[in-house]
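Case 197 in the screening queue. Each case pairs one protein sequence with one candidate compound; here the compound is adenosine-5'-triphosphate. For every case the pipeline is the same: read the inputs, emit a complex structure as tokens, and attach any notable structural observations.

Predict complex for case 197.
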Amino acid sequence: MNQARFPTIKTLEQFDFEFQPSVDRHVLRNLSGLAFVERGENVIFLGPPGVGKTHLSIALGVRACEAGHRVEFQTLDQLMTRLKKAREENRLDRTLKQLSYPKVLIVDEIGYLPLSRDEASLFFRLINRLYEKASMILTSNKSFADWGEVFGGTGDRHRHPGPAAAPCNHGQHQGRELPAQGKTPCRHAQEPPTGGQ
Ligand SMILES: Nc1ncnc2c1ncn2[C@@H]1O[C@H](COP(=O)(O)OP(=O)(O)OP(=O)(O)O)[C@@H](O)[C@H]1O
Ligand SMILES: [Mg+2]
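Case 197 output:
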């Protein structure tokens, strides 16, 4: 659990599904069975600030740890800093390899700051490393429609198919849970939770 670098420990038991009816508890129960980890699929939590995306990503990570999987948590910002530093120090390949050891890599806060094209291409090198070997749990306050801009694109994925298109495609054909995840979590929640912690 220490290796996972969770910023705090959150569990599914602490998550109040009554308070957050837009999160489908059956989907979460299904995910907590960790079949997605066995299959190397990805999970994405989308929604506005404060609705429990980080909570749920940690809670699934804790489950995976308990099941004996190696898990690592970081924000996209931390990940970028780490990758860029590694590249400057000529050890990018080793760092990409290290990041592919965990069976579950959680990348929190996608979309809070847009990535440059260069940063986006570093991120895609990582995604390629993990592809079908490890699962990613991603959280974002941006809808998929906006991911093109987040990943250094122009926002028009069809006319300028750059790396921006890649994470969506990976997720869509690999992550069977994804359509549900993309739609359900937290979309309608406006208020901060009052309890359940
Ligand atoms: N339904 C809920 N039940 C219990 N606690 C919740 C629930 N939703 C949110 N919380 C708690 O509220 C706080 C904010 O949630 P969290 O950090 O997961 O939000 P977030 O969606 O990641 O927001 P941001 O986009 O700002 O990162 C956390 O302490 C979390 O445990
Ligand atoms: Mg968060």
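Case 197 observations:
- The mean pLDDT is 81.
- The longest helix spans residues 53-66.
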